[in-house]
Model the fold of this input.
Amino acid sequence: MTFLKPRTLFGRTLNTIAVVSIGFLVFMLMVIGSLLLIPLGQRSADDLAALMIASAEQWQTAGSERPALEAMFVNRYHITLTGSDQSHPPSNSWLPYRFFLEQALSQRTGQPIRLLEERSVSQGQWFWVDIPIRGQLIRLGFPRSRIGVRPPVAILLVLIVGVGVTLITAVVLVKRQTAPLESLSKAVRTLGSGEWPDPIAERGPDELANLARSFNRMTGQVRELLANRTTLLAGISHDLRTPITQIQLALAMLPDEGGDAELLAGIRRDLERMNRLIGMFLDISRGLEGGQSENLLIEPLLDELVRKFREHGVTIHWQPCPGCRQEVNAMALTRIVSNLLENALRYGEGSPISVTCGCTEKGVVIAVSDQGPGIPEEELENVFRPFYRLEQSRNQGTGGSGLGLAIVRQLALAYGWDVALQAKPESGTTATISLNR
Done:
């Protein structure tokens, strides 16, 4: 029997139990056959051989009493004696008893004996044998039903029932043991996709119940830590806006001729930059709080974003995706695409931006491309780190805060989406966001 190599724990455990059980079943049949059935069959065949020879000897000397003896042998022993020399072909039956009987008769007569076989519609299968008694061949016969045993049928039934019971027992047992692990695996995948799984049932063997209990406790702790982090981040960002607003108000009340105009302008720029940073922190906190996902058409959402950017004089080549639907959080997706557009605008050096959208079997893919100087291959992952900026962007004129792509990555991870940057062959960079189903 050939078994496939399954990849799941359920399949592998079931495969192992099935192979071992069926192997043991075959071994058991071999032991029973060699140590019990074969000796019993040989003993039975030897007894029948002795009975047939004794019957033939008694029949040869019976004379006029032969008809009575023949009737007695048929009624009592189911053996037919005849002097008929009708020709029958040698038996080709694979019945083990046939070989045992031929061997026993050969040993008792000292001559090679071969059973003959006759088949008829009315009488069925019969075995005949010519036994030499004092120079005369005496033919004896018995029906196949006299032997009674059916080894092939018995072995087939034992194998079928044994394999069936083994597989059913293995399926029930393995399913019971692996069901908690399957639930745990599903919960881990759900958690990895950015969603919170339902608590796992804490049942089964102690080890699995403890594992489920530990996972539920860990999930609760992680959820609480993220909630505390988000609350803390939002609180700090919100509280910082109050002194910044007060400073901006104080600067506005200063007389224009009473101070250094250049210094005041620099302070205002720094305050505006701090305000933008705080806004970004609030965006992260709002995005990480999650929210309701809806089954939306993606094209109208992106079309609205493109329209807003075009109103500010940005050239965008927009390739829509009619009919593409996806279960998404609209606020998070809007924030991600807005950040990618702002990034493309900031580092694209005024060149047109390309936005494409398409449906695949796995979900929706959105791409934002610019025609700027591009990002070196070795820096494509580094730019997703918070406050990380490339050397050429470290100036106040073009450089950002270093949080735009970090926000994109954090929000994408929170909702189980994939985001990646790819350097274009000619110039520029393509940012791809994959909304996995």
